[in-house]
Structure formats: C-alpha cells, structure tokens
Input
Amino acid sequence: MFDLDRWQEIYHVLKSNKLRTFLTAFGVFWGIFMLVIMLGSGNGLENAVSRNFADMTTNSVFIWTQQTTVPYKGFPRGRRFNYDNDDATALRNAIPEIKYLAPRIRGGDFFSTNNVIHGLKSGSFSIMGEYPEFFLIDPLNITDGRLINDLDIEEKRKVVVIGTRVKDLLFEKDEEALGEYIQIQGVYFKVVGICKSKRTGEQAEQENQNIFMPFTTLQKTYNYGNRVGFFAITSQDGIPVSVVEEKAIEVLKQRHGVAPSDDRAIGHFNLEQEFRKFQGLFTGIRVLVWIVGIGTLIAGIIGVSNIMLVVVKERTKEIGIQRAIGATPVKVISQIITEAIVLTTFAGYFGLVIGVGLLELVNYAMESSGADADMFYQPGVDFRVAMIALTILVCSGALAGFVPARRAVAVKPIDALRYEQ
Amino acid sequence: MIKIRNIHKSYTNGQNNLHVLKGIDLDIEAGEMISIMGPSGSGKSTLLNIFGILDNYDDGEYFLDGSRILHLNERKAALLRNRMLGFVFQSFNLISFKNAMENVALPLYYQKINRRKRNKIALEYLDKLGLKEWAHHLPSELSGGQKRRVAIARALITQPKVILADEPTGALDSVTSQEMMDLLTEINQTGITMIIVTHELDIARHTQKTIRIIDGTIQEIVKNEAGSQKPEGRSQVRSTKYVAASNVQQKKYEKVA
Output
C-alpha cells in the first residue's frame, strides 16, 4: 500500500543518521558497481574474441592432407596424396549430415615474389579458389561489387574478388578497381568485387590480402587438374560437426588408401571444438564474476542488515508505541523490510547506473580514440543482466530487513515501551 | 466492560521472582470512570498494562467487553488495542518526526484509512481539544499540556470503548491538571470507560471510584462523592454527545491556546 506516512517514516529513519546511511548504502553501491564492472569487462573480453570468430559458422570443420604415417595396401609410409573433385561428390553422397561443402584450393606458392600486377604496381598475395558455399561458412563483408557465384564456377570465368588491402596496394587512391583487370601469374582477371574481413587485428589484415577466384577457374588456369586443396564442411543445424568430421575422414581414408589407424595422414580442424573451448572459458569467467560480485554484494547486504538491527534497537520504544496503538506485527515487519529494500535499491541503482556509465565511457573512449584492442571490445551489460542484478538487490534488501524486523516484533510491546536508551 | 478474576502476575529477573499482582478481582462497568491508586511498585501500572493487552498475565481470567483475553497472538492483540482501547501514556509517547495531526491520525493509519480522510478526522479531534493551530507542529514544539492533549486526541480518534491513562497529570501544574481532569471527565461523559492510574489524591477524587492497590492486592474500593454523580445520557450515541461536550471544551481552551 502506498501511503505517505510509510515513506515519511523511511525518510526520517534514513535521514536521522546521514553518515551511517551513506556508509551502509556505499557497501551495497560498491557491491553492485563491482558486479557490473566485472560483468561488463567479461563481456568486453567475450565480444573481442567472438569478433575474431566473426560470423563464421561455428559448426564447421576443415580437412586437408598430410603425410601418411602407416604403411597400408602396399603403400609405404610418408606418402603424400591429394584430394580431387570426386572426393567432394563422394563426401556429399556418403554423408547426408553435411550442410555446406566447399572444396578450396590455394593457388601455388606465391609468397616469395610479386605475383600480382596492375599497371606499374605489383604485390604478393594469396590466391584462393573458392566455391560460393565457402562464403556461407566464413562470411566476408562485400564493400563493392559482388562475390563469386555459381555461374562463375560453371563457366570458369576469369573474375576475382580482391581484399581491401589488395586494392589499396594495386590501385591509386581514387582509382576505380571494379571492372579493371589485374594480372595474376601472367593471366588477366577482371575485378568484380572488393571484400573486407569481418575479423580484427592481424587476422583481418591477412584476410584483406586475399584474392578469391572461382574454384574451377583456378584449377584450370594454373593446371591443377581436378586437385582439391582442402575441404570446408559444415554440418546440418543441430548436428554436431564432429559427426560429419569423423565420417568424412573415414570416407577420405578409404578413397585414398590410408590406413584406418593412421591418425596423422589427414589433417583436420574442428572450429566447433575451438569455439566450445572459448565458450567454456567465458562461462567460467562469468561464473567467477557472479560469485565474486555476489560475494561483494552480500558483504554490502550484511552491512545493511547490521545497520537495520541498530536502527530497530534505537527505535525500540517508537515501535513499541506504534504497536500499542495498533500496529500489527506484519505492519512493523513490512515497514522495516521496506526500509531495507529502499536503502539497498537506491544504493544499488546508483551502483548500476554509475557502473554502466563507466563502461559506456570506456567504450566511448575506446571508439573515439580508435584504439582497436584485440582483447577488449564493447564492454557492457545487457538489460536482462541489469534487471537480474536489480532483482537480486530487492530480494537481498528484503532479506537484510527480515532479521531486524523479526527482532523488532519479538520484544513484547510493554518491554518496548519501557525501553530507555 | 472489564472483568478480571484472580489475576496473578510475576516478573522473573534472574534468580528473583517478583510477585507483582496477587489475585486481583475487579469489575468495571461500561462508562465508568475509575482511578487506580497505590504506591510505587504496588502493581497499578502492571494492572493497567494487562488491561491494555500490552502485557500478559500468569493466572486468572480477563474479559474485555465480554470476550476472554487469553493467549492472543500479537496480530489480534494489536487489532484489539487499535479498535477497543485508547492509551494516554505517562510520557506522551508521541512519534517525534510526525506532527501533531499525523500523530493523532496514526491509529487510523493502522486501520488502513487513507491519508486524506484520517488527517481530516485528526484535525477535527485536534480542533475539539483546541489545538487546531498546532496541528502542523512537531511534538518538540509543543508544551507538556499540549502534548498530553495530542496524546488524548490520538487515544480518542478510533472511538475506543476504554481509555487507559497512566498518570495523565504527571508533570503538569495544578491548573493544567485541573483542566486535564475536566477534559477526561467530559470524555467519560460521552460514554467511554476511563481508567486512570495516578498517585495524586486530588486527581483520584475526580473519578467515581478509586481502587487502592497495595502490594499487589486491592486494599479498598472507595466511591468518591465528587465524581459519583452518574453522567446522564450515557447510552446516547457517543459521538454526538461528545461533539456537544467538546464545544464547551474548545471555548475553555481558547484562552490557553
């Protein structure tokens, strides 16, 4: 029930000893402030890492070849082998759990010399042969033009999508790159798109130096026959990619005469597992943050409870009077609990606001100064967490008031009336 | 109105067992005005507290308005105190941070009457006691007599059946004491049973009966001449009678205020 008298009483109690109220409130303020700061920082870390995963489909696996380590079917160990286009078909037929399958190939060993030329400028870049599916597995931002499409694959068109870094190095600042031709290993290709990595830092820099062309074009132009460098595969939604991974390795081993026991012949990288590890790490951090944060908060709450005990003691006589003229125990208890809740909620709300404010400030400072920290990005707490924190506060406020309130009504009214300080 | 039979009460303080009330029998009729006298430690305050359901008793029977008061839980006790009883404490016991009006209105707050309404009623009562101008003053800004009248207004506001007054004239000068007793008498004449604990004979004489308690037992019950004339119209509707009475009261107090 909202009644001015109730709030007047609360106001009086809190006002009657301002320093004490302030110090008590500060305990709660500090608790929630720390909780918010820690949660926000945890989120900052997590955001930074998940930004490095970019929009990459996390249920994906990459499979490439290595040397065999076990002799099998008359083949010696240490044999090298290659995947081919038929492997892709075989995989697709054998494993229904596959959602996207993108054979990829890296164009030659281009690292030492300047392999790409445009006009008077030249540079050394990685050339990737891709299927359009690959861009569904590891998306890129297209800043201009288009990506590689199915027609490009079919017709083996001589088109390329270049990274922003490639454009910067090969073209003048205000020069239009789209539609221009660049020479790669002596062959001319038309630039149809410019792309930018969704990642940050070093990874992004590397990705921006890529040149993507249709898989079939690369195979044909540079004499790869039907060779496939490696596979990027994602599983159907809801199916762990490790299922696909295992089956694919089995199929590939069979097709290339690799001993079933040979674990090192086929290289593979399961992004899902990696992602899980990070997820586990951040769950751990979050749990730790909540434990520490709530611990700090509890210290504040105990402070409130303690002070309420003192207040109740000081007001014994007053409470006695109120009970003598008809205040029921429920009334007294609810009054004291309300006081505790008001104190914690106010203090906690300030902690929340100032904590969030500080996070926003850090965020703003980082963004405006352009600091691109690899390990910290957009710290902050979401609305839901703020609400949870507030709920915890109100509940703990009630808890803090409960013991003192019980104490207040445990005294007989007559003893309370007789009480002298 | 109040009937007690063989009430015993003792306090235990460590090893000492102090037997305060040793079997008290008493009947107080509705509308009576009685005083309880006795030396310090005779048990008169304890008796008043038992009447007020502020304290419990060890043995015996207590009937308030026909219903037995025994092992009440605190909630029921609080409700009974709120509806049936009005307290005028020796040390006023006003709430320091509430002004006179809010203090008077407090019992109605516990009846969940909304603020506007209860403050209006409180103002009416303060008006009757000649304290209208002081309604918005804090207790610390009032004189002893004024505080006591605020306390009386607070006791009256729920229109209780019984008013329990502990030394209502304590620490007041003789003129103010006289006025206070006149006021209490007038309230009594509206039909409210009045029980006054005092140690002043002058005060006791104003009541119809004086009960002397010595050492936990009733020594004698004296009928007083002055207070013994039965107020007429006791059975009339209380509030109208009281308003009539209080008009006189107001004039009387205008001089003081």
